[in-house]
Each structure stands twice: as C-alpha cells, then as structure tokens.
Write a structure and sequence with these properties.
single chain; mainly alpha; three-stranded antiparallel β-sheet; elongated
C-alpha cells in the first residue's frame, strides 16, 4: 500500500473519530438545554474544553495557577507563595521522592512552573519526575519535549496519563482546517498578533475563514488569547506548541511556514520607527520569534537573503535590549552570507557597524572590531552618508579610547568635527565636541576639555544618536564628563551634585549597557571626593547588570571598583585581592585606562606597608600612561609613587620630594586644583615631619585658599586641619624662643 493511501486512510479514520466526538458533544449540549428548559430548579455543573452554547449557560474559565515571574528573585519561602510552586512541591514529595524546595533550587522550580504555563496536569506530571532528574536538568528536558511522554497516575483516564495523550485527544477532536492552522501557528514563539497569524497560517485568501478558525481554537482552549494594548494577542501553551511542531515538521509545507514567519518579522522590524522608538515595545515583545526566525534563516534549510535582511533590521532592537553578544553572533553570520546574497551597501554598512560596536561594548578590544568599524566607515564614505560617518567615527573614537590610543582618538574626533560641520547638523557637531572634550580630558587638557563639553551641552542633540541608529552613548555622558572636570578644577560640590543627578537618572534607564557605562564613568567623582560609601549600591548594580548582559570588560572594571570600595571601608584583604586580580585581567585585555586603576591599587599597597610592591605597580602604570598619552591621572600617579618611596623598607626621601614637586607642577599646568591639593597636603605633611612648619604652611595655604567651595569634603577638611596644626606648631616654636 502506498504512502498516499495510508495517509488517506488515517485521515478518514481520524475524521470518523472527530465526527463521533462532535456528535457526542452536540448530544450533550442538546440534553443540557432540554433539562434546563424542563427542570428550572435543576443546576448542571460541567467541565468542557469549549462552551456548550446553550440557553442558560454561564461559563467560568479556569485560569492557570500563578507562577513566579521570569525575573523574580526567589527563596524557598517566597516561591511557595505561588500556587503553581505549591502544587509542584506537593506532587513532588507525595510519591516518596527525596526532593526538597531550597533557596538554591527555588528559581529553577519557579522556571519549570512558568514554562508549564501553570497548568495543573502538566505540573503534576513533571513534578513526579523531579526526584530522578533534578529541577535544573528538567528545564533542558522540557526543551526537548520529554515532558510530553512523562506518565502520571495509573488510575487516571487514559487521556490524562501523559501530556501527549491529553493534547492528542483534544487535537483529534478538531476539524482538519483547525488542525492545519494550529500546526502552522506552532512556528510562533510566545505571543503573536492576529495580523501575524493571518500572514503565516492562512490557508486561503479568505480572511474570514482564518478568523473563524482562530476563534474556534480559542473557544476549544487550544489557543490562549489576551488583550494587550487594545489589540488581541494569541499564544500556544508550551506543550501544545511542542506537539503541533512535531506535526508541522512532518508536513511538506514546514519550510514554507518558517519562511513566511521570517519574512513577516523582517517586514515588522523594517517598518518599526527606531528613531521615535514607539515601535520598540511591540518589537521587543516579539523577540523570541525574531530569534527563532534567525535560527531558521541561517540553518541548512533556511533563506540567507531573509536572514541578512532580518539581522540588519533587528540591530536597533539588539542594542535596545542590551543583547550585544547575540547581536555579534547574528551579525557575524549575516556578514558571512553577504557574498551569496548581493546585499546593498547600506545593509552591509549596518552589519559591519553592528559587529564592530558589539565587540567594542562586550570588551573584545581586538583587530576585528577595528576592522569592522573602519570597513563600515569606508562604506559610509562611499555612499556619501555624512550622518553615518559621524556615527561611526563616534564608535571608532570610543574603541580607540578603550584600547588606550588616546592621541589617535583625538585625531578621529577632529576628523568627525570636520564631517559634522560639513553636514550642517548641530546634533552631530555637538556629539563630536563631546568626543573632543573626552579626548582632551584623557590627555590632561582640562581647559580645552571643559570648553568642548560646555559647547556640546549648549546645543540640543548632544546625547542622541543620528538617524535612529543603535547608540553606544548614554544620556548623561556630557554632564558626567563635566562633573569629572569640575572636580579636577577644584569645584567638588558642583561636581558631586551633577554626578549624583546623572547617576540618579541613569538608574531609571531601561538600557543596561548605557546604565553600566554611566555608572562606570561617574565612579571617579565619588572616589576622588572620598565618599564611596554613598556609591556602593551603584557599584553592586553595575556588577549585576554587566554580568547578566555579558559585558565582560565592564564587569572586570566593576570588580575593581568593588575592590576599591572594600578598601575604603576597611575590608583590606578581600578588597586588595579583588582589585589586584581585576587590574591583571584588564591588562591582559588591553584595556587602555587600566593605569588609572593602578593608582588606588598602589595606594592600597602603600597603606598595607607593601612599599616595594606599590612602587613596582605605580612605576608600571606611569610607564604605560606615558606611552599612550594617558596624562589625566599623571599628577596623582606621581603623588602615589612618592608615598611608595617614603614607605619603602629604606625610604628614599629625596626622590619622593622630587616626585611630589613634579606632581605639583604638572597639576598646575593642567589646571587640576583637586590633584594639586592632594599632592600639596602630602608634601606639607612631609615637611611637617621634618620640622619645616613655615615651608609646609606656605606651600599648602595658597592652594587651599584658591578653593571657593567643598569645605565640607574630606580632602579640604584634612588640609584645613593640617594648616591649623602647622600654625600651632609655629606658634609653639616662637613661644619657646
């Protein structure tokens, strides 16, 4: 017997079974209505997968059991507050299993219940096997649909012994058209709109037919529906989708459905207004579908052309959701496919820019990131895209800063300024002035840096990316840079006020990448002002977000900041170990500003009486900073070197004083009054020990006198107290004579 005849006979048998089931259902409905009419006092309580649609019927829909939300932080006690978890634990332990809900496995159990859609039967069947596999392993087994075959109680009805049997029983009661649509809808991951269902699952041109079928599937509880933003959303429960996927995979039009699915989401993203960002919430809600479509496009059976276009269209969403590692993955796959798809220059530009940018932000400071950004910039120049050139120069500038190429970064920013002037776009010019200001800041040119930053802030658009493209910026970059400059120039109160406002704004941002960069850049203001206690929560947030979103270099920098904070709070051992380990990791990653983190490391070694180690650390930092032009912290490096020389086993006081003198001179040249006060305080203290009270006072008093604010900060209080000591010492000496 050939395959066609077998398939026809199977369908005929299934149709007969379906007709019998429908006839029984219709008979039950007719009986219920007759009883209602003839016996008014009679009440009938029935359960059904769909409404009887008879006179007097009142429906109460049984909702799934509440499960923990995806991002919930769970303990055993808090997890048990959810009925789905409570049922899971009850069923897992009732059969003699040694399973116990603990704080360690609470999240995994909550995840299982959520993945099972809170359906009691699914939870019961799954919980019965948790003792054999463990909660963590069962999540993987769900992905492989093993739960469809897990057996429950022997005394249950046959259709309730496994999930497959339950679903198969309901599936077989559907009409052929309903089964076909349900199978096709299984290509969706998570929720989908009615438009999406029409685009993928329509079996004919008649929209009314697909609408009626969807309504019927909802009525029969094969499809869940909800109203979101005034429009209906649909989804298949996980187990139903798994069963329907198996059915679809065996059909000849499976690839056609996957292609329709990918094409639909490509069009959806291409029509999303990234500049206004109004479409991002809806697009983000569909990210599971987008990810699934990309996986099919780049599979052996996929459509590379749709895959390249879908990747390019999804780039803004990847950045908006801080899914940078995933963006890198798909951009690389799409670039590999460019030759076989003959893509446009603009789409190629977007892919190279995305790959270079994603690698930059995830801390992969290698030649590939630089090559990709330069390739994208060349394409932008080729097609005369001035705004695109500004955007790419901004990214290239960031990569050069992160890799310690500070002089190159300044040249790049100047090149961007010329292009921005040519474009006539004030927002682009503002962004390039911001880049110039940051470059000058790293190079220790404070006056020029402040002038550029204030010029950038005087125009609108300083923090907005152009053309709705994904941004590497964060809204507070200009003000937080100004805060840093103000502290260095001797305005600590204003600096901290701006920094606090910027951090407060950053913590409300719904973009982890931008948040992490903002928190990182603000750290120094609080460190310089010696008030890291108030910044500790921000550092913990930075650590958590950078780990979650795989921002590897930012995570290491955050660990260094945590180490510095622990040292500040007196937790010397763990703090020193964490800071030292982080500095070593950053050196291996070619992080350009690692020399700056060597300053607190050397200072901590000095405080721990490891003078020789401190001297080695700060000498390496000074040499590296001079090689790459990282002069911003050079006055402080020279000060810490002097303190290390003083704390050596055999102190070198002469060289220490020379380094302090160099630090003072460089701070004055840079206009860094904040650093000048630090160094002057150390040198005055040294002269105090030598009995040179007048020299010490004459050195420190003029520096202190140039401050107009910040007298409540620790640095200025220390200087004030020292000046009082020096004057008293001089008075005592005069009285003694």
């Amino acid at each position: 017997m050939n395959r066609c005849n077998l398939r026809w006979r199977w369908r005929a048998a299934l149709s007969q079974q379906n007709n019998q089931g429908r006839a029984q259902f219709d008979a039950a409905a007719a009986l219920a209505e007759k009883l209602f009419q003839e016996a008014p006092e009679l009440h009938i309580l029935g359960t059904s997968r769909e409404l009887l649609r008879v006179e007097g019927e009142h429906a109460h829909r049984l909702l799934p059991l509440a499960s923990p939300p995806e991002k919930a932080s769970l303990t055993a006690a808090s997890a048990l507050a959810y009925p789905a978890v409570e049922l899971f634990v009850e069923r897992a332990t009732s059969g003699g299993s040694e399973f116990a809900l603990t704080d360690a496995n609470a999240w995994d159990v909550g995840n299982l219940c959520r993945r099972l859609d809170g359906i009691p039967l699914a939870i019961e069947l799954t919980a019965g096997h948790v003792g054999a596999y463990g909660a963590r392993a069962m999540v993987r087994l769900l992905d492989e649909h093993f739960n469809l075959l897990w057996e429950g109680r022997r005394t249950a009805l046959p259709r309730h012994r496994t999930l497959r049997a339950t679903i198969e029983w309901s599936y077989n009661l559907l009409s052929e058209a309903e089964r076909e649509v349900l199978d096709r809808l299984s290509v969706f991951v998570g929720s989908f709109s009615l438009d999406a269902a029409r685009a993928i699952a329509a079996t004919a041109k008649d929209d009314d037919a697909i609408l009626a079928i969807i309504d019927s599937l909802v009525a029969k509880s094969m499809l869940a529906s909800s109203v979101d933003r005034q429009s209906p959303r649909y989804r298949l429960l996980d187990a139903t989708r798994a069963y329907a996927q198996e059915r679809l995979a065996a059909q000849t039009d499976a690839d056609e459905m996957a292609q329709r699915h990918a094409a639909y989401f490509r069009a959806l993203l291409e029509n999303t207004d990234g500049a206004a960002r109004d479409g991002f919430p809806a697009a983000a809600d569909q990210f599971g579908n987008i990810r699934s479509a990309l996986a099919w496009c780049f599979s052996d059976r996929g459509d590379r052309g749709i895959g390249v276009a879908l990747t390019a269209a999804a780039i803004p969403l990847f950045f908006e959701l801080s899914l940078l590692a995933e963006c890198e993955h798909w951009a690389a796959r799409a670039i590999e496919a460019l030759d076989e798809t003959a893509e446009s220059a603009r789409r190629s530009l977007a892919l190279y820019a995305a790959l270079g940018s994603a690698r930059t932000l995830t801390g992969q400071f290698d030649d590939l990131a630089m090559i990709c950004l330069n390739r994208a910039l060349a394409l932008a120049e080729k097609i005369g895209d001035l705004s695109g050139q500004v955007r790419l120069i901004d990214r290239l500038h960031l990569l050069q800063l992160l890799t310690g190429k500070f002089a190159d970064a300044l040249k790049t920013a100047r090149r961007g300024e010329s292009i921005a002037l040519e474009s006539g776009d004030p927002g682009a010019l503002s962004r390039m002035h911001l880049a110039l200001g940051i470059s000058c800041h790293y190079l220790g040119e404070l006056a020029a840096s402040r002038a550029y930053i204030e010029a950038a802030m005087s125009r609108s658009g300083a923090t907005k990316d152009v053309s709705g493209e994904p941004t590497l910026d964060y809204p507070g970059r200009a003000p937080i840079t100004l805060a840093r400059i103000l502290w260095l120039q001797g305005y600590p109160d204003r600096a901290v006020e701006i920094a606090r406002k910027t951090v407060s704004d950053a913590l409300t941002m719904d973009n982890p990448t931008m948040l992490c960069r903002a928190l990182l850049w603000a750290f120094d203001v609080f460190y310089w002002n010696e008030e890291l206690e108030s910044y500790e929560d921000s550092i913990d947030r930075l650590l958590a977000e950078s780990r979650t979103h795989k921002l590897a270099t930012l995570e290491i920098v955050a660990e260094a900041m945590k180490g510095i904070t622990l040292l500040t709070l007196g937790t010397t051992g763990p703090g020193l170990a964490m800071l030292k380990g982080s500095v070593e990791k950053l050196q291996n990653r070619r992080f350009g500003a690692v020399a700056g983190l060597s300053v607190p490391l050397a200072a901590a070694l000095v405080a721990a009486n490891h003078g020789e180690a401190a001297l080695d650390t700060i000498n390496q930092a000074i040499a590296q900073a001079r090689r790459c032009g990282f002069l911003m912290e050079m006055p402080d490096m020279l000060r810490v070197k002097a303190e290390a020389l003083i704390r050596k086993a055999t102190p070198d006081m002469l060289q220490a004083e020379q380094n302090l003198a160099q630090s003072l001179e460089l701070a004055r040249q840079q206009g860094a009054l904040g650093y000048e006060l630090r160094t002057a305080t150390v040198l005055a203290r040294l002269r105090q020990r030598q009995g040179r009270y007048r020299d010490a006072e004459e050195l420190l008093a003029p520096v202190y006198g140039r401050f107009t604010e910040g007298f409540g900060t620790r640095g200025l209080k220390t200087a004030s107290d020292l000046l009082t000591e020096l004057r008293l010492s001089r008075s005592d000496r005069v009285a003694a004579h």
